[in-house]
TrEMBL record:
UniProt KW Signal keyword: yes
Taxonomic source organism: Sphingomonas kyeonggiensis
Domain of life: Bacteria
Protein name: Uncharacterized protein
Alphabetized UniProt keyword annotations: Signal
Record's signal peptide: 1-21
Length: 306
């Protein structure tokens, strides 16, 4: 409780402060204070949303460079096939390449009773699938009790999509005095065909993505909601916990405290994926996010296609 002297001091401070937001006095002599917040325009809103949706890796937004090959487990075969087909449809519309029916799975969707236990057991059995993950992120993932989680294995490629390879004795160059020099001396080498001051000479590509959803979280959700969520989380890198409770994206579908999620991919989601998979993959995150934001802003108010 404030002492009388403190209360008086506080009142004096208020009286000495200019009333920038003060309206005219009401009939009872009391002043009405109106606080007016800044209203963001469509472009600013889009930039803010894209910023919350995105997780840059080494200054870029990672995406699949090779073919996308979804695999779904935890549903009956019929439902699993429907979810996989939906993910393929979303990936195709975004501009990603698809693998054939016999491709090796690299976007894995799993429905399990205990996501934390599943993730820890996977880490115990296949630690190499977590090797490239930042240690702090890996620790947070393994300790998470979230109803839905996702992680990706990303690797650096050159601008032409070639990945790091081990140098060979034939990978050599000739110096000015005629001496043959082995490039890399047998160590991993990433060949950079050309340098640019506009675009980066490398790109971050998703090699493998897991989307793990607990059975309890799917109650009350329809199959296509789950499929669209899995597609969105698998085709990009995101941290849904950064989203606002009413953000226009399927990514908040399983977030605690969020408003009821969309019933399908939103127009913003589709614009995001289209922007992410448009053009070359060696652009900077700033360039990618700028282009994505423009697409999201243009999609505002458009109905989401089923």
């Amino acid at each position: 409780m404030l002492k009388l002297s403190q209360a008086i001091g506080a009142a004096a401070l208020l009286l000495a402060t200019p009333a920038f937001a003060q309206d005219r006095a009401d009939s009872d002599g009391q002043s009405t204070i109106i606080v007016r917040g800044k209203v963001l325009d469509a472009k600013e809103q889009a930039r803010a949303l894209v910023g919350r949706m995105s997780v840059p890796v080494a200054g870029q937004l990672a995406r699949y460079g090779d073919e996308v090959c979804p695999f779904v487990s935890g549903f009956t075969d019929v439902y699993a096939q429907k979810v996989a087909a939906r993910i393929r449809k979303v990936a195709t519309e975004a501009g990603a390449k698809l693998g054939d029916a016999k491709c090796r799975p690299n976007l894995v969707v799993v429905i399990v009773d205990d996501g934390r236990e599943f993730t820890r057991e996977l880490y115990r059995l296949y630690p190499t699938q977590f090797t490239d993950m930042d240690p702090s992120k890996r620790k947070r993932l393994l300790a998470s009790t979230a109803a839905a989680r996702s992680w990706t294995v990303t690797r650096i490629h050159n601008e032409d999509g070639q990945m790091i390879g081990e140098s060979r004795s034939s990978d050599s160059d000739t110096s000015m005095n005629g001496t043959r020099i082995t490039i890399g001396n047998g160590k991993p080498v990433l060949r950079i065909p050309q340098a640019s001051i506009i675009n980066q000479s490398t790109q971050q590509q998703i090699e493998l993505a897991y989307v793990v959803i607990e059975t309890r979280a799917t109650l009350g959700k329809n199959l296509m909601q789950v499929a669209d969520y899995a597609a969105m989380r698998g085709l990009m890198q995101s941290r849904p916990e950064k989203l606002a409770a009413d953000d226009d994206t399927i990514l908040r579908l399983f977030e605690p405290g969020a408003l009821p999620g969309p019933t399908t991919l939103t127009a913003s989601d589709r614009a995001y994926l289209s922007g992410l998979y448009y053009g070359r993959g060696n652009r900077s995150a700033a360039s990618q996010m700028g282009q994505i934001s423009s697409g999201v802003a243009r999609s505002g108010g458009e109905p989401a296609n089923p």
